[in-house]
Amino acid sequence: MVSIKLKKSRKYIAFLRIWLSIKVFFGKINYILLFFLALLVFSFSYSFFMKQNQLPIQNIKDIPKIEVKQLTLNRFNTDIVDMKVKADVALQYDDKDIFIGFFASRINDDSVLENLSGKEVWHVGDSYDFIEGIHYTKLPEIKFFSQKGVYNSRSGVFVGQGDFFIEDVGMTTTGKDIFYDSKADTITAKYIITKILRL
After folding, report:
1. How many whole angstroms separate alpha carbon 83 and alpha carbon 149?
2. Which of 43, 123, 138, 167 would suit a FRET pair with 112, their CA atoms being 20 to 30 Å apart?
3. Which residues touch 79 (CB under 8 Å, ≥6 apart)?
């Protein structure tokens, strides 16, 4: 009987010692420091796991600010739409706009319909760079194509690269590297060949 009471008291004393050591340990802990240590561990683990899930970005300038699919813009002049611009995809960056599947149509000052299209057009400042070719028509007779080219809307100058052709009433003209100044109404190019069509 005495040995059983002695064993119980030893267990009780051992329990008290453990409980007192835990109480002393927690009494010495600075809870504010413990909070900030936990916050630091959480921050490191969060940033580690988030970095693994992010998409690789080469340069922030490679990401468009605005991306629009199936863009259509209409300009109204009194009661009619005198200009329509369409693009399959329009991307706006800090330094440029890019149009994929570009098409523009307008009624000019002479009430003639003009159409302009290109697979990919880069707009920077006053310049429109037709990377993959330009098609232009002025109904009913004029058709124009150039493999590449840059049109400056301020100066009215188009500088083409590569082959081009122009169809007009009764004639076709082909050549390379066309230069067209709309204000001076002059065209220069290399290797010009003009064919007059007999009606």
Report:
1. 22
2. 123
3. none
Whole-angstrom Cα distance, residue 164 to residue 134?
9
Q: Which residues pair with 32 in a beta bridge?
A: none
Tokens at residue 140, please? Answer: 């009913």
- Distance, in Å, from the CA atom of 48 to the CA atom of 62, rounded to the nearest integer, reads 25
Of residues 35 and 117, more confidently modeled:
117
Question: Omega of the bond prior to 64 within 30 degrees of 0, cis?
Answer: no
Residue 106, CA atoms < 13 Å, CB-side half-sphere? 13
Paired tokens of 161: 């690269």
Q: pTM, whole model, 2 decimals? A: 0.65
> Which residue blocks in the chain are alpha helix, DSSP H?
2-28, 31-53
pLDDT digit string, tens, across residues 166-194? 998 889 999 999 999 988 989 999 999 99
**Within 10 A of 85 (CB to CB), how many other CB atoms are there?**
17
